[in-house]
Design goal:
Strands 1, 2, 3, 4, 5, 6, 7, 8 and 9 form a 9-stranded mixed β-sheet that branches. The longest helix has 13 residues. The protein is α+β, with helices and mostly antiparallel strands and 159 residues long. The chain has 3 helices and 9 strands; from the N terminus they run βαββββαββαββ. It has one domain: Electron Transport, Fmn-binding Protein, Chain A (Pnp Oxidase, Chain A).
Length: 159
């Protein structure tokens, strides 16, 4: 069988970076207390350094799972209004979550950037249970549509 993964090129890098820049939410996969996979939809944005972040509540199951095991996967990309959903690009990121508490030096800069891209979160960003999760990307998998599969490094993603 032929390897379906194409050599990573600038077009793939640009597509993946574009998906990251456009994403306002994604699906996160974590491991629950039993070791079983669990998914949730979370808000997503970019930190000042360009890496993906989320404002999350410590009360949520996925945040509690990340506190026990920071390994996770993020799925970005939404199908367009027409056509087969499998022809639209999507990006899977394998990562480790690092919690950024309110007293961390970078929290204010992250908060300011977050509020620019997610203004409705102003309603709850000040709640004591909310903090940022910074996702340290190890690998990316881009499916740009049928026959357009690529493996990306953090450097490919500009991180």
């Amino acid at each position: 069988m032929t390897n379906p993964i194409r050599p990573t090129d600038d077009a793939a890098r640009d597509m993946a970076r574009g998906l990251m820049a456009q994403a306002r939410f994604c699906v996160i996969a974590t491991l629950d207390d039993t070791g079983a996979p669990m998914t949730a939809r979370i808000a997503l944005g970019l930190a000042p350094d360009g890496g993906p972040v989320s404002l999350i509540s410590q009360l949520s199951q996925h945040t509690q799972a990340l506190a026990k095991d920071p390994r996770c996967s993020l799925l970005l990309g939404e199908p367009g209004p027409k056509g087969d959903p499998l022809t639209h690009p999507r990006l899977t990121l394998q990562a480790r979550a690092q919690m950024v508490p309110r007293n961390a030096p970078e929290f204010d800069a992250m908060q300011n950037g977050w509020l620019e891209s997610h203004p409705k979160s102003r309603l709850y960003i000040g709640f004591a249970d909310f903090l940022f999760a910074r996702f340290q990307i190890s690998t990316g998998f881009l499916n740009g549509g049928f026959g357009k599969a690529f493996t990306l490094t953090a450097a490919d993603l500009g991180l």
